[in-house]
Amino acid sequence: MVENHHSKLDMPSPSQTAASENATTVPCGGGDQRRTEEEVSRLGACTGSTLIQANVPPLFCFSWFRFESKGLQGDPDRRTSTRDRRSSWGYVFILVNNCLQYSAYYGVSTNLVNFLKVQLHSGSKAAANSVTNWQGTASITPLAAGFLADSFLGRYWTITLFLFISVAGYGVVAASAVFYAGLYLVALGGALQPVLSSFGADQFDAESDEEERRRQSSFFNWFYLSIVVGSLVGGTVLVWVQSAHGWRLGYGIPALLSVLAVALFLAGTGAYRRHQPPGGSPLTRIAQVVVAAARKCDVEIPTDATLLHECDGDDGMSVIQGSRRLAHTDEFRFLDKAAVETAGDKARPASPWRLCTVTQVEELKCVLRLLPVWACGIIFAAAYTQMTTTFILQGDTLDPRVGSFRVPPAVLTVFDTLSVMLWVPLYDRAVVPLARRLTGHRRGFTQLGRMGVGFVILTVAMLAAGTLEVARRRVVARHGTYTGEDGAGYVPMSIFWQVPQYVVVGAAEVFTFIGQMEFFYDQAPDAMRSVCSGLSSAAFALGNYASSALVAVVVRATWCSWIPDDINDGHLDYFFWLLAMLCIGNFGAYLLVARWYTYKKTAD
């Protein structure tokens, strides 16, 4: 076992003093860890693997702060009492912090295209492209934040760093000085979201307590609800402030909210119970497995998996900092060659580029198993984005009048928000208990099952949109259009016929997007959870790009006959049928992936 030695406050015994004279010091990553030469020899490649995690730049050597201080690091051995676990309320700070951040984000993003056109005098196409590029950047940067959290800083410090970046970004945006620089600082600061969700889930001891496991599952529901509430505040109240009181106040409030988010997160420091220490670069560990397996391509894999190389860290953990040992699985057997110890490995100094542990190999297998599930999420995201594109085009032609008031088509997205706000508590308090009784599963649904239900529901939303489009075209054929006060042509059919499709999309979000957050956190290796949680954002970004590409292909292939400038002359219903078929095909592929998938198992 790798032993943690005493702090400087402990008086060493004479035997300890003698042993320390022949000790090897492992720098950073866990304090001043000293091991005798005998221990280093016995651990072999384990020491090499540990050194990978420990060899980080001095800038990140917060070992005294990260591992010795329970006030910030939580309980290092992760074995607090049940009473302590259930009295932990640090996640409340995280939920409110997330709500404030999304209020600020949507306060800027919702009306951004109008700001670019009115204040910066951008053309419509240029403004739309600028917003799309910015949103794409905001969805990709979480992977970088996740890598930083898992590799070097840990989740607490990564969140703190990116919160301050957000404050700087919103401040620059509010001052309208170097506006685009501020905008992209906001996008970079928003990269902390998957790290924040992982940090919140860390507050529950789900590995050893069933009740904590259920509370952790509920946490993801409420975390997503905090996002939706923030988007509702930012997309309605703050947009109204911008319209009624000007851009300076309208962008000043998001800056203030970002400051409050930082203050709230730091105020909760004493309540955060568990911190996941960084485990070193996951990319390095993955590369080591690939290289070691390639070097041993001619080596035979033993039929007995217990003969593969593995080392124990403290308390049965792996030698990867903060990561439990993973049980061996039979998929991707070629990679097991990296953990086969040969005579050559014993004859030369230990090198993780030649010999890896089973846990290190299983980390790569976990990532490979996640990728097909992640890929299915891209088509889901492409269909989901229709809510802010083709749904709006459809709504632009419908009768917006409610008495003397006119309802802008984009306002109907509030019904998606309200649907999520209804479905989150309904799912948590009614659907899960009912499903638990029917299936016997502790979560009601398996994680993959929950996501699959969302895939089906979104298909229904596309069918609903297509059906409405058929009905709308029939009304146009029978009654034509009327000219509104703004000179635009409207179909004599209420815009509120779109409400059902928005409500159904909201239900799909609750099942799939929340299911994705929980799935990627739970099934990722312990030391890679922040990076893997960022896969959800990456899938959403790629879904946006896929939607744009699909529209471009359809326009070119149909000579604009499906989606012309005036959709009354086109066949938007065909496009919705196409999306529904893509969703059905994607669901079929997802069923195959889910059937093949092997859930992660620890070696405890």
TrEMBL record:
TM helices/strands, residue ranges: 88-108, 156-186, 222-241, 253-272, 367-387, 407-427, 448-468, 502-521, 533-554, 574-593
Cellular component, GO annotation: membrane
One Pfam family it belongs to: PTR2
Keywords assigned: Membrane, Transmembrane, Transmembrane helix
Residue segments, region Disordered: 1-34
InterPro entries named among the record's database cross-references: MFS_trans_sf, POT_fam
Membrane topology (UniProt): Multi-pass membrane protein
Subcellular compartments: Membrane
Gene Ontology MF term list: transmembrane transporter activity
Residue ranges, compositional bias (Polar residues): 13-25
Gene3D superfamilies noted in UniProt: MFS general substrate transporter like domains
Superkingdom classification of source: Eukaryota
Protein family according to the UniProt entry: Belongs to the major facilitator superfamily. Proton-dependent oligopeptide transporter (POT/PTR) (TC 2.A.17) family.
Identification of the protein by name: Uncharacterized protein
Organism annotation: Triticum turgidum subsp. durum
